[in-house]
């Protein structure tokens, strides 16, 4: 998690996006306003303290000049001190002046200064010749906030040899505290108003910004099983939501395809099951129509067993496809010789090949890391199709090729009736058979290539078909093999 993630508050999962955005907007508005308020407060207090220090420095210099010019004339000192402090207090805050001799005795001070602050409360005297004098904040005897400053004054040598004075000055800062306190109250009100306003504005902005989502929600609710052809991406959406709409439309495309496929599968399944069930029912009704001989009953039972076998094989194939789609089929891989396995499977179909006079040719060889049972089932389905749809005297070629990029390719080519180009993508659909195949070879179920594709998917391989009407068909299986597979046999 990044630092920026840590700065974000956590919300309950059920909290709406509008409320989340409103809270975030208000929180960040509060943070920014608080930072601004703190900075402004610091600037205000710093500026006022700086001005106070400058004022005390100026007043100290004025007293310093007076003491240096008239080191023995206390009347002038008194007139100066009392006159300026009285004049200043009538317009601004009050300030106090005390002049102390080198023995620590008070020579003159602003009336009432002793009641405000004593001699010992002031800092040690310092020089203000460089203009950088800074006062010290303190509390008076009555709790009054004061800014204190003291400096030593040495008269000119020819006027008061050996004399030293200490000038103490205190500025009453109560008026500034009142100003700062009032400012802070106003800032607090502004901060509260700003946060509430920001929350209201944030809520309005968030609700307006999320309005397209509400419109999209309504569009989603209109889509049902009967309206899977509708698309939400056709409307003009903001860029970010437009990407969501495209993704949703892509999902609808897949759902519509799966739904249509399921509908076709249900219809095809009903059709395929209807024929053997009707045959069984018809034979049973005919057998019961009148009394039969044992041989006739035997023939009916044998014919029924054939139909039962067809139903059993169909159900087994459908169960295999269902398990393969849910990944319940366990794939137990081992290294095998591809050509030897294919020759073993061919032995099962050799009688059919001899009866039709089909010439079978094997080429190449290679090793595979596959489940032997599933591999034989896939090859068996392909060979069954090849021998079924190849006419008398045709040919079947089986080629095993190891490529340089660690793939093993198996091609099964026949000289059969072929498949139209537009029908090739459909051959992997369940129960799909071309019109020509249904009319000339009615005994098939159309599940063979579906099973082959499921087996190849389980092995991470691929299957493809290349064909043309009356040009034969080539089925290609591709298996990815580790580089060292050939060395394990």
- CATH topology name of the largest domain, in short, is Beta-Lactamase
Q: List low-pLDDT spans.
A: 1-5, 485-489
Helix content: 40-55%
Q: What is the domain total for the residues? A: 3
The fraction of residues assigned to DSSP E strands is 15-25%
| Cα end-to-end separation | 50 Å
Quick tags:
single chain, 489 residues, alpha+beta, Beta-Lactamase, Helix Hairpins, Heat Shock Protein 90, five-stranded antiparallel β-sheet, five-stranded mixed β-sheet, rod-shaped, disordered N terminus, disordered C terminus
Task: Explain what you see.
Helix 7 runs antiparallel to helix 8, helix 8 packs parallel to helix 12 (448-458) and helix 9 (338-356) runs parallel beside helix 10 (372-389). Strand 9 (395-402) and strand 10 form a beta hairpin. 54% of the residues lie in helices and 16% in strands. It has 12 helices and 12 strands. The chain has 3 domains: 17-181, 2-Layer Sandwich (Beta-Lactamase); 239-325, Orthogonal Bundle (Helix Hairpins), CATH 1.10.287.130; 334-488, Histidine kinase-like ATPase, C-terminal domain (Heat Shock Protein 90, 2-Layer Sandwich). The chain is of the alpha+beta class and 489 residues long. The protein has helices spanning 3-7, 17-69, 74-91, 113-116, 174-209, 211-222, 239-289, 294-325, 338-356, 372-389, 435-440, 448-458; strands at 95-101, 106-109, 136-139, 145-153, 165-172, 334-337, 359-364, 367-370, 395-402, 407-414, 462-467, 473-480. The strands form 3 sheets. The chain has a 5-stranded antiparallel sheet with strand order 2-1-5-4-3, covered by helices on one side. The chain has a 5-stranded mixed sheet with strand order 7-9-10-12-11, with helices on one face. The protein has a two-stranded antiparallel sheet with strand order 6-8.
């Amino acid at each position: 998690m990044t630092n920026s993630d840590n700065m974000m508050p956590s919300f309950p999962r059920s909290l709406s996006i509008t409320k989340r955005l409103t809270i975030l907007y208000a929180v960040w508005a509060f943070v920014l306003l608080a930072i601004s308020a703190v900075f402004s407060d610091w600037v205000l207090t710093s500026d006022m303290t700086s001005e106070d220090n400058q004022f005390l420095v100026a007043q100290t210099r004025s007293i310093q000049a007076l003491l240096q010019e008239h080191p023995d004339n206390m009347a002038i000192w008194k007139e100066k001190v009392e006159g300026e402090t009285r004049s200043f207090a009538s317009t601004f805050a009050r300030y106090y002046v005390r002049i102390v001799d080198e023995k620590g005795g008070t020579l003159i001070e602003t009336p009432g200064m002793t009641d405000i602050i004593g001699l010992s409360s002031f800092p040690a005297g310092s020089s203000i010749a460089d203009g950088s004098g800074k006062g010290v904040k303190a509390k008076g005897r009555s709790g009054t906030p004061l800014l204190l400053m003291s400096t030593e004054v040495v008269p000119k040598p020819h006027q008061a040899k050996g004399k030293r004075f200490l000038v103490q000055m205190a500025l009453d800062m109560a008026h500034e505290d009142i100003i700062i306190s009032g400012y802070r109250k106003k800032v607090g009100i502004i901060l509260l108003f700003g946060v509430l306003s920001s929350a209201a504005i944030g809520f309005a902005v968030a609700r307006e910004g999320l309005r397209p989502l509400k419109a999209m929600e309504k569009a989603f609710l209109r889509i049902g099983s009967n309206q899977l052809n509708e698309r939400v991406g056709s409307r003009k959406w903001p860029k970010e939501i437009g990407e969501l709409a495209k993704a949703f439309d892509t999902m609808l495309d897949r759902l519509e395809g799966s739904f249509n496929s399921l509908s076709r599968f249900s219809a095809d399944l009903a059709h395929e099951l209807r024929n053997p069930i009707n045959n069984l029912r018809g034979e049973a009704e005919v057998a019961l129509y009148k009394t039969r001989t044992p041989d006739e009953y035997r023939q009916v039972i044998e014919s029924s067993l054939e139909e039962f076998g067809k139903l059993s094989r169909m159900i087994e194939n459908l169960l295999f496809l269902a398990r393969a789609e849910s990944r319940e089929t366990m794939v137990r891989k081992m290294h095998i010789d591809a050509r030897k396995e294919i020759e073993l499977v061919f032995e099962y179909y050799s009688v059919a090949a001899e009866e039709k006079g089909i010439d079978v040719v094997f080429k190449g060889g290679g090793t595979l890391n596959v489940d032997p049972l599933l591999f034989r089932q896939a090859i068996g389905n392909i060979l069954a199709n090849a021998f079924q749809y190849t006419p008398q005297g045709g040919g079947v070629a089986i080629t095993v090729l190891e490529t340089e990029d660690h793939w093993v390719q198996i091609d099964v080519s026949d000289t059969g009736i072929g498949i139209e180009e537009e029908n090739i993508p459909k051959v992997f659909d369940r129960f799909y058979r071309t019109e020509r195949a249904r009319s000339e070879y009615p005994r098939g179920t159309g599940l063979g290539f579906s099973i082959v594709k499921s087996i190849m998917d389980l092995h991470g391989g691929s299957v493809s078909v290349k064909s043309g009407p009356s040009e034969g068909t080539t089925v290609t299986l591709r298996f990815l093999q580790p580089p060292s597979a050939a060395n394990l046999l």
